[in-house]
# Entry
Amino acid sequence: MRDPLFIDVHCSQEKKFKQNAYGDCFLSKRYPEEGRLIGVLSDGLGSGVKANILSSMTATMLLKFIAAGRDLKKASEVVMDSLPVCQVRKISYSTFSVIDCNDDGYARIVEEGNPQFLWIRDMEVLKPECTTVTSKKFKNRHMHTYEIQLEPNDRLIFCSDGVTQSGLGNPEYKLGWRRDGLIEFVTAKLRANPTISSSKLSELIVQEARRKEVDKKAKDDISSVVLYFRKPRELLIFTGPPYDASRDNEYAQILDVYDGKKAICGGTTANLVARELNREITSDLRKAAGNLPACSFMDGMDLITEGVLTLTKTVEYLENGNQDPNDAAGKLMNLLLDSDCINFMVGAKLNQAHYDPDLPLELELRKNIVKKMAKTLEEKYIKKVTLQFI
# Structure
């Protein structure tokens, strides 16, 4: 049995020019205990607020149906048959693409009305078998279903027609960029950078789609979703000494032999590890930035920071989406965002300093700060997070 894959997923979007709301909607949810990810991309009719409502409604219904245990094909068929037809344009109120995949690489996909997805392996676009289901209510409405088995480093790319139809009317792209143009662009980017992230690739697709327009302004809502199936990047963060001091060496050894990146948050924890592994800690105060203590260094560790203050500030940066702040919390944030599977070892030994009434009120206990960080990483950044309280 092969090792589980990590599913790196990201959606980049741009609104139609002069609109205040996205007409496309992408929703996704990861289920770590099942090793499962569900994603839905919906394109609402027209643009602006009306399209936003239609696409959000469609994506929300599909995500909830499938998450509740409804069969993907049946749930999609119910939604397809339920979507009304615009009386003016005589087309569906929204279109959608759904993917339900797991860490073993097995994926089920349903598309109705959206451009066909790309499945790329070794720079080649694969052609999966497709089953077509015609709506019982609308005979011109068809749903395409797929079941595929992905391999490490495979990519799936979904998009709204704002991508494939970009440049429509431009003398250079009279029929739009089209699927063939998207394939040529994506494979060129993969050849140049085989390990490009989902966020970067999806962003480049949206930017290129906009550039195809004569005046470089989006004539439709543009959405690009990229899924990258690869070996996960692992991170272990050790913060706080264990409740039972007799186990200090055990946890220091776990950190030392961990197959991935390693970080320590907390001076007491760092001293514990240094003592148990017989290593030296060094600091360079000239590198301190902002109001946080400087980082320290130890052989075998990727990052060592102060504890509660730095963790609290890192949560703030993650929640606000701060761009690369130049302090210890910024370094920790970047390490977190560059990782896929983040594991915390959180010591349960109480530090009486955290109960000092003179300290700022926003200083929470380490356990609550880490729980808050984990929730943000899971919900906002779709990371896999495990917590172990020791």
Q: What stands out?
A: The first strand starts at residue 6 and ends at 14. The chain has ten helices and 18 strands. Residues 48-67 form the longest helix (20 residues). The radius of gyration is 24 Å.
